[in-house]
Write a structure and sequence with these properties.
This is TonB-dependent receptor plug domain-containing protein. InterPro entries: Beta-barrel_TonB (IPR000531), Beta-barrel_TonB_sf (IPR036942), Plug_dom (IPR012910), Plug_dom_sf (IPR037066), TonB-dep_rcpt-like (IPR039426), TonB_rcpt_CS (IPR010917). Belongs to the TonB-dependent receptor family. The chain is mainly beta and about 800 residues long. It has 2 domains: about 80 residues, Immunoglobulin-like, CATH 2.60.40; about 575 residues, TonB-dependent receptor, beta-barrel domain (Maltoporin, Chain A, Beta Barrel). About 5% of the residues lie in helices and about 55% in strands. The protein contains 7 helices and 54 strands. The strands form 10 sheets. It has a 22-stranded antiparallel beta barrel. A hairpin with a 1-residue loop joins strand 8 and strand 9.
């Protein structure tokens, strides 16, 4: 192996002149276009342009069709010979609308969106710079197609097609981010991803288990961070950006810097971001139940209730965060591409605001309920080889090591015992992916995957009056979770208009856990699980014309029980405690999708997706017994015993609809609307609305754009969920919902009006400013424990180089 790397290094130092460089520019201004995508099916090749609009297309030699796509420009196709006859120079023409504007990697391989039978969206850097989302959770929300729940300012839990948390899959640079302690309750891991470091973000709606395995039931969120860009000229390529931003609603102070340095074979990207958010101020017009006009301070060894001068300030919600990324790329020849990436993210401790709203005996229940620092670190090494053999045209070996840390700290009012639970997960993964084109119509995508999670969970109890610290019960057992899989996806082009795709995956999953019985009378000290899951999909894409596409897909998906399902102990609600259950099976989803998109006269684009998902053997929380007891004392309270069990079925169906209209003189109108309905079976055989099926929601925008200026006036909105619309588990949460005329919790409808603008002073300097929530509405997105920002002014400055 050592000799192989020495040989590759020698090749990198000695081989020259192998590349053929293309340059792509705007046909009006002549400016180079960055991030233009080129893709070919035969030979299998993929490339993007750098800052100078250049890319190496040696791999495309001999291709009879090279698709060239870029957001806002007409999609064109050339043969390699055509490009050669143009002296490897292409000009792109701006357009109003495209049916497929993107090439996606949400399916792990780079593919045109027109060849994927599921709905996929891309959130481009241009949209991010215009909208100025504060976190990656907010970035997903600006799409108008992903609903975001927040229990505190330092968070964001996406809901997609009636599913959330551990029934959605997160991927960063092709690496699975989900761990063995992803829970059914709301999770905040997506904020660990730096929105400034993203090259693009993609959301695949619907099942993705064939490629991604467990958890990919409702959708896949795929984040591609900045790829180190090589230089295709004699000079060194240096590019980057610096961003500074301020927001008034939470006194946000954000700074970011990234730089790319590239030569012919080596390239480096460095990215650093710092985020600082003060307590969040909510709006002045809305339900009074959302106002908590006090917070708790510790004074002279006593917890004191402090009433605030500004009752709209949500205390405690302040937090800060730092993100760092370093990537290295080495491309010694046109056949090999080595990339290494290091990612690090850490937040400050931050309060879980919804828990601070809980009342017991007329007083706040908690003096403290905080998350400790949320830490994520990843090392990711990949090797891509482009071959011409019987096994593959392209192969990618991806090795990753991740470390996660999170903790929960709580103390009841006027109690001296502070409980801290800390979880650390070390995650290791290996993926070996292959692409092989056979003939002119058939492409195979296949691979192997291995994932290992090592879970370390500890608990401690500190007497804050004496500072004595003792061991306490851990949240989880000490455990390992393993997953091993083989998968195959076959794409067959029946004709120029019709494409068929089918896939299959076999997954073996295993858990080994050791339980600490010092604090709870578990009837076991260890538990083991070793089971398998088989999933598949079949779908098709039909394009009768260039401006008309119909797609359909049938698929199964699964979620393997993880350590959180099998071994967790926690207080789910006052008077209830969840205990371990080692006797679990995987839950299965069966899904059907139908999508239609049509452009009318290069002026109007309409797209509509309908879906239905049935979840069998669902892992849900139900009443349970422990050593024959249906209740035990937990945290000093007699609590009903519950456990995660395969005890229910669930059904979710809905539509996603969008319309885009290009008006004269640079104006445009667009709207996205989402409706979903879900129900799940309860333990008594009755049904309840699904907890993660959000109310109808959407975004409608009026835009104006020129070369230098872009303006947006838009409304974001959510429909009402009455008391009867709420899941049974939500109907008891009076601390996070408004109250109707009968005193019952409900989620009111809401809307916000927003105005944003971005002005490009020149090719490198731009200003963004805006007013969000113009009418200062006080509202909470469904199921959220903290209110959204009130009227918010922001200003952002970006300098590119």
């Amino acid at each position: 192996m050592k000799n192989i790397y020495l040989l590759l290094l020698l090749l990198g130092l000695t081989v020259s002149g192998f590349s053929q460089t293309i340059t792509i520019t705007d046909n009006d201004s002549g400016e180079p276009l960055q991030f233009v995508v080129l893709i070919s099916e035969s030979p299998k090749a993929y490339a993007t342009t750098n800052k100078n609009g250049q890319s190496d297309i040696t791999d495309f030699k001999g291709s009879e069709k090279i698709d060239v796509t870029f957001l806002g420009y007409k999609k064109v196709a050339f043969t390699y010979s055509d490009i050669e006859s143009r002296n490897f120079s292409i000009e792109l023409e701006k357009t109003n609308l495209n049916i497929d504007e993107v090439v996606v990697s949400a399916a792990r391989w780079q593919q045109s969106s027109s060849s994927i039978p599921l709905k996929v969206i891309t959130i481009s850097p241009a949209k991010v710079s215009m909208q100025n989302p504060q976190t990656t959770a907010d970035l997903l929300g600006i799409s108008g197609k992903v609903f975001i729940q927040k229990s505190q300012q330092g968070g964001g839990s996406p809901m997609i097609r009636g599913f959330a948390t551990n029934r959605l899959l997160y991927s960063v640079d092709g690496v699975r981010m989900n761990t063995a302690i992803f829970r059914g309750g709301n999770i905040q891991n997506v904020i660990s991803v730096d929105p400034f470091s993203l090259e693009n973000a993609e959301v695949l709606f619907g099942p993705g288990s064939v490629i991604y395995g467990s958890d990919a039931i409702g959708g896949v969120m795929s984040f591609q961070t900045l790829t180190p860009q090589l230089s295709y000229s004699e000079s060194t390529l240096i590019s980057g950006k610096a961003v500074a931003r301020y927001s008034s609603a939470n006194n946000e102070r954000t700074g970011h810097f990234d730089v790319n340095v590239g030569w012919g074979k080596w390239a480096f990207v460095t990215s650093v971001s710092s985020f600082d958010y003060d307590h969040l101020r909510q709006g002045s017009h809305g339900p009074d139940e959302y106002i908590k006009p006090y917070h708790i301070q510790r004074q002279s060894e006593t917890d004191v209730v402090i009433y605030q001068n500004d009752q709209l300030l949500q205390i405690p919600t302040a937090y800060s965060q730092i993100n760092m990324m370093q990537k290295v790329r080495f491309r010694p020849t046109e056949k090999f591409d080595f990339q290494y990436g290091f990612h690090y993210s850490e937040t400050s401790p931050y309060g879980r605001y919804d828990r601070h709203n809980r009342i017991r005996n007329g007083l706040p229940r908690y003096a403290e309920w905080n998350y400790g620092p949320q830490i994520w670190m990843m090392n990711n090494f990949s090797v891509t080889h482009k071959g011409d053999n019987v096994l593959y045209d392209q192969s990618t070996l991806r090795l990753a090591q991740q470390a996660f840390e999170e903790s929960r700290i709580d103390r009841s009012l006027n109690k001296s015992d502070r409980t801290t639970n800390t979880e650390k997960v070390k995650a290791y993964s290996a993926n070996f992916d292959f692409v092989k084109t056979t003939g002119t119509k058939n492409t195979l995508y296949y691979g192997l995957e291995y994932v290992l999670n090592d879970v370390e969970s500890t608990g401690e109890v500190e007497d804050i009056s004496t500072t004595v610290v003792e061991d306490g019960p851990s949240r989880y057992p000490q455990a390992t979770w393993q997953s091993m899989a083989l998968y195959l996806n076959d794409q067959f082009k029946i004709s120029d208009q019709f494409l068929l795709q089918a896939g299959i995956r076999y997954n073996q999953f295993k858990i080994d856990a050791e339980f600490d019985t010092r604090f709870y009378p578990f009837p076991f000290t260890e538990a083991n699980m070793n089971k398998g899951a088989l999933t598949g999909s079949i779908g098709g894409v039909f394009r009768p014309t260039e401006d008309w596409v119909i797609s359909t897909n049938l698929a199964t998906a699964f979620r393997a029980p993880n350590v959180d399902d099998m071994g967790k102990v926690f207080d789910s609600e006052p008077g209830a405690v969840v205990v371990p259950n080692p006797d679990l099976d995987a839950e299965y989803a069966y899904s059907a999708d139908l999508g239609v998109a049509k452009i009318f006269g290069d002026i109007v684009k309409i797209d509509l997706s309908a879906y239905y998902t049935k979840l069998n053997n669902a892992l849900v929380r139900r009443d349970f017994t422990l050593n024959g007891l249906d209740s035990i004392v937990y945290d000093g309270v007699m609590s009903k015993v519950q456990a995660i069990q395969n005890a229910a079925e669930a059904n979710v169906y809905g539509i996603q609809a969008g319309i885009e209209v290009k008006l004269p003189e640079g104006f445009g109108l667009s709207s996205d609307f989402n409706y979903q309905k879900g129900e799940e079976e309860l333990d008594d055989g009755t049904t309840s609305p699904s907890r993660h099926a959000a109310p109808a929601f959407g975004i409608t925008k009026l835009t104006y754009a020129t070369d230098l200026l872009r303006l947006e006036l838009y409304a974001a909105y959510q429909a009402e969920y009455s008391y009867n619309d709420l899941a049974v588990s939500e109907q008891e949460k009076t601390e996070i919902y408004a109250l109707d005329e009968n005193g019952n919790p409900y989620s009111p409808s809401w809307y916000t009006l927003n105005f944003k603008g971005m002005y490009n002073v020149n090719n490198s300097l731009s200003f963004s400013a805006g007013i969000e929530n113009l009418t200062d509405q006080r509202y909470r997105p469904y199921s959220s424990g903290a209110s959204a920002p009130g009227r918010n002014f922001f200003l952002s400055l970006t300098q590119k180089f």
